Structures are given as C-alpha cells and as structure tokens.
Amino acid sequence: MTSVVRVEPLTTARALRGPFDYARPDGAQVGTVLEVPFGHQTLRAVVTELADRSEHDLAQPIRVLPDRVPPDLVDLALWMAREYCSTPARGLGLVLPPRGVKERTELWAHAARAPEEGERLTDNQRALLATLPRPTGKDLQALRRLEGRGLVEIAPRGVRRAPEHVAVGTRREPPALNADQAAALRRIEGARPGERLLLHGITGSGKTEVYLRAAATTLAEGRAVLVLVPEIGLTPQMVSRVVERFGDTVAVLHSQLSPGERYDEWRRLRSGEARVCVGPRSAVFAPMADLGLVVVDEEHDGSYKHEGDPRYDARLVAEHRARAHGAVLVCGSATPRPESLATLTRIRLDRRADGAPLPPVEVVDLTEAGGLLHRRTHEALVDARKAIVLLNRRGWSNFLTCRSCGHVWQCPQCDVALVLHRHDGLLACHHCGHRERIPQACTACGSVSIARHGTGTERLEAELAALDRPVFRLDAATADAARTLAAFQAAPRAVLVGTQLVAKGHDFPDVDLGVVVDADSTLRFPDFRAEERTFALVTQLAGRAGRGGRGRVLVQTIDPDAPAIAFAAQHDSDGFLRGELERRRALRYPPFSTLIRIVCSSPDAGVPLAAAQAVKDHLDGVPALGPAPLFRLRGRERAQVVVKAPDRAPAIAAVDAAVRAVAGGREHKRASFSVDVDPQ
Ligand code: ADP
Ligand code: ZN
Ligand code: ZN
C-alpha cells in the first residue's frame, strides 16, 4: 500500500524545495494538486511521487484540489528544473492546468419520449420537437412546458470557447507531393520511435506540406501530434493550414487566448478530444497523451527560448518530450542551427515546390553609397511591384545628441541611449520600456540644436513614402501584425518595411524584391551566434522574394566578404554551416561545449561584481569566463560569469551548487542571481 505522497510546494521561495512527505489522501496520484499545511502557512503543492513509507511523522493534507497535472508533465517539469538550474516549483508552474476558469455550458433539449397518438400538441410544439436535440436558446420556456409533460429533457452541456484562427491567404487544396517531398515523408514515416530528424529544406520547398502529411499518418495510427511554431501573430499561415487540414481535432494554444479559451483548449487536449496541438513555445507543455510526432517549425527561431525562470529552450524540451513518448521529432528550417545539423539526422529538400529557382541575390557595397539606400537599391525599389525591406532597428533614429555640448540622451534606468519614436512623440528605452517626451532643448546646456543619428524603420517608412505606393511597417510597435501582413498581401503594389519580423515564414506569392538595408547590423553583436543570425536573416528574407519565379534580392553591407553574407548571397547553407561548425569547434562553442551564463544584479554598485566572483570561486575548476560587468539595466548594476564547459551535466550541477551556496549565504544577500543555460 502506498500511503505516502511526496510533494513539491508551489512557492516562489527559491530555498524551499521538496520533496516533502504527507499522508496520502484518497485518490491522490502523481500530478494531483493538494493544499498542505506547511509551518504556519497553507501551500498548494503537486504530488511528484508515491511512497510506501516515510521516516517522518506525516501531516494530513488539507484538501485535494480538482486540478491534475498529467504525470509525464510532472516528470518534464522536474527535469526542466534541473536542466535549467531552476526550482521544481517554477518548473511545475509551467505545466499546471489553467486555473480559476469554469466550463461554459449551454442548455440543450433532447427528446425524452415520442408523443403518443392523439396527444394534444400545437403546431409550434410539433415543430419544436422535430428540431431536437438542440440548444434551448429563446425557446426555453416552450421547451420547459414540454419537459413538464415528459416529452423533453433539458440538461447543460459543455461549449467550446473556440479561439479565432487568424487566416491570411486563401484556402488551398492539398497539392500532390513532389518526389523530394514524398521521399522526405517516407523517411519520417519510417523513423524509429524517438528518432530525431532535421528537415533542411530551402524556403518554399514545401516543408509544411510534409509536416501535414506526416501528421495525418500519425493521427491515422491513433497517436497525437504537436506542432511548435515561432510566434503565432507572425506566422498565422501555419496555424490556418493545420486547422484547415485537420479541423476540430486541432487545439491552438497561445498567449493571446482568453482564459476561457485556454481552459477549453487545454481540456480538449487532456481528454483526447483534440489530438493535434499547434502553438508557440509554451505549447510544448500541451497535456497530450501518446505523442507520435513532434514538429518544430523554423527551428532556428530565437523565440523558442523563454526568458523567464526557468529559461527553457522549447526545442530541447520538445526533444526531451518526444523521447519520453517514443515520438518522432522533426525540426524544420531553411537555415538550421549548426547545433541541429551536428546532432539530428538530416533530410533535404533542395528545390522549391513550385519549381521556381531561388531569386538572385546581389551584394551591394554600402561604403560607396551616399545615404541609407544605395542608388541601385533605390532603382530596384522604383521598379518593384511588391517589395520587402528589412532594417533591424526600430524607431526613427537611434540616438540624440546635443550639437553644442555633446550630451547624449540616455535611459535613467539603463546605461543605453534612448531611441526617438517620432510617430508617438517620445523617446523610448528598448530595454526597460522607459518613455519620455521629445526634448525641445538640451537638459545639460539649454541649446536647442539637437542632432538625430542613425535611421530606424519609422524614418525609412517615411522615406519610402516618396515611392508613391502604400508602405506598411511591421515591427514590435505594430499593433496587429496579421492585419498588416494581410493588407500588404492584398495590395497590388506595396512596400513592407520592418525589423526581422518581415523575414519570418510568410508565404507571399508575388513579392519581386527583397532588400536588406544593413546586413552588418546583426554581425556587429558581440555574440558567437552573430554569424548564424546574420546568415539566417539574409537567407530568410531572400526566401520571401521570387516565389512564382520573378524576383531579386539586394543585400546592402559595408563588409561584402563576411562569410555569413557571402554564403547567404550564394544560397549556400552547406558552405555556411561547414565553415561555422569548424569555427565553433576551433573556439569550442556549442555544440562543442555548453554555455551557462550567470548574471548577478543589485541596485548597489560593486555588489554584482563581488557576487559574480564568489560564484566563480565556487565553481570548483569548471572552466568559466569573467566576472565581467554588464551595462546597468532597469536600475540594477549587473555582472556576469559565463561557464564554457565540455561536459554538460557536471557543468549544470556545478553552477546550481555554486549559485545556491552564494545566494544562500549572508555575504551576498544584496545580490540577485539568474542562471541561463544555453543563452541566446
Ligand atoms: P516551406 O515551409 O518549405 O517554406 P511551404 O510549405 O510554405 O514551404 O510551401 C511553399 C508553397 O508551395 C506553398 O504555397 C505550398 O502550398 C506550395 N506547395 C507545397 N508543396 C507543393 C507541391 N507538392 N506542389 C505544388 N505546390 C506545393
Ligand atoms: Zn547641450
Ligand atoms: Zn531603460
């Protein structure tokens, strides 16, 4: 008899970790949520284990709550807590059922018995009986009278609050697969349980169609399918294609759902009524039993990394989940990460589904341009019908300075320059959200001569207005991305200008020009992924152009020979990946090592650096860089240590122990700590 439950309390206190033993209430299983007495408090807690005996005196839980976490998600949460140096409570917080929502019901009337011969009924009553079963609606009173006579039964029934599925584009019949797609599908269908595949297919090669067919096969085998996409608002086409193909068996999970919608989608997945789930990174926690296929679309996309605690990477979580279910994992991209190439088995799609060639890419040397746009770029824009223009900087200009005294307008909370947003009439910090009015005069010397430096999407949008056609802007300030994309799609001639958001998987058939205004901007980040990001951005943008055969791409750069740009211009992802993996091997970057970043912060100067040094001292010889100061953010001074270790598990364990030791001690109690395993 298992008479003991081991539980993890759901608390934000980092130090409070279970498992703690309690007497097992009737019916409690792994995943059951309880209310338990804990010292003087009452805490919610999740059962993570059942046991036969305990060495402690057992307290009785106060209540058994109706929520229940599927046991495989309990395991997943605990694994995440370890893998990302977080706490069980925070891991479990990600997999709990939506709370505080009730099922929505509607009264339905069913026929209870057939009317007897000669039974007196009005025409209206006969008509009502002929329409059953149905919602009572405005006929409730009439139906109640029939209920009184035993003819009708009225009972509540659950109603689904169905999310709206944003749709761009028109409905299409599924095409017959081409030979490459058919071969890819056969490879996926023949995969071993738990096998991990990389579908490396150029933009427009028909990867989505392959996922959809593989999903159909999995469903036919009676197993469930999880499809992860980058942000839903930006890739509504993927969602609508899945919903179009599989209808009501699809549940959509994303952050824009109302609590009621989320609850209903969760319940439909939990009950097995929905057997396909599509959503962004958090959908990796969908409560599904017996997954047979897990798809990660656009696997290179940075949005798969979660920036809260635990800082999980949905791609790694998906892999872990697929393995636990014996499901096949398929990661797809035109620009896969070097890590994925090194660890997954590759399937290729080297031709566009419509047979059109990839558009020619021309690299334009910006050093010989007078302004932001090279003359050739300008001419191409004049000639183009539909153009997409990428500039990876939001706002009007990057920073303001005083022409008299050199004063730079900075965020009061962060050590960064404020960006001018002319449209909203303010200066904004892109790190903390601080906003202030546009200055009329210098706060330091009173001069009214203020210089604006650099160009962002807003200013470019204004410049492109001279082209005499609609200009749509898509960046983090755009309220409704799906609507902007739909408007661009519908216009016969138009320009879409924006940040990297314009390069995400949109499938517009008639874009005949792609422009990257400043391809170096992402290369200049001091980050080992800068090359990979730049290559992906240029290639993805190029992939938006020339569907249907026409089109060209112009890439402006001050460094035409940078490998990331040169390989992207040749559409040579193999060449890029080969070089990039060599570089990473030489420098011992992932996948040849694991990086873990520990950031210490405090409002007080000096505290973070000392705390970071203490963490490093506790690392027991695990190789680490730093401590190094970081720029002040949200009013907090910061410093970091970066672990770069060949063996993942021991490095994670060492970091966890070091941070616990330093954070738990008295000496550094003014510092906060955040750990990021596989930082982006
Ligand atoms: P990817 O995801 O690889 O970028 P998509 O799946 O979006 O490519 O396919 C690009 C376009 O080609 C879509 O409009 C899709 O409907 C179409 N397509 C896909 N497969 C085929 C096929 N076998 N025959 C014709 N058109 C196809
Ligand atoms: Zn001044
Ligand atoms: Zn700020």
Summarize the model shown.
The protein is of the alpha/beta class and 680 residues long. The protein folds into four domains: 4-70 and 87-95, GIY-YIG endonuclease; 179-349, P-loop containing nucleotide triphosphate hydrolases (Rossmann fold, 3-Layer(aba) Sandwich); 361-394 and 457-587, 3-Layer(aba) Sandwich (Rossmann fold), CATH 3.40.50; 594-677, Ribosomal protein S10 (Alpha-Beta Plaits, 2-Layer Sandwich).
Report on this model:
The protein is α/β, with parallel strands linked by helices and 680 residues long. It has 4 domains: 4-70 and 87-95, GIY-YIG endonuclease; 179-349, P-loop containing nucleotide triphosphate hydrolases (Rossmann fold, 3-Layer(aba) Sandwich); 361-394 and 457-587, 3-Layer(aba) Sandwich (Rossmann fold), CATH 3.40.50; 594-677, Alpha-Beta Plaits, CATH 3.30.70. The strands form 7 sheets. A 7-stranded parallel beta sheet has the order 11-12-10-13-14-9-15, with helices on both faces. A 6-stranded parallel beta sheet has the order 16-26-25-17-24-23, sandwiched between helices. Strand 23 (471-474), helix 13 and strand 24 (494-498) form a beta-alpha-beta unit. The longest helix has 17 residues, at 648-664. Bound molecules: adenosine-5'-diphosphate (ADP) and zinc ion (2 copies). One zinc ion is lined by residues 402, 404-405, 407, 442, 444-445, 447.
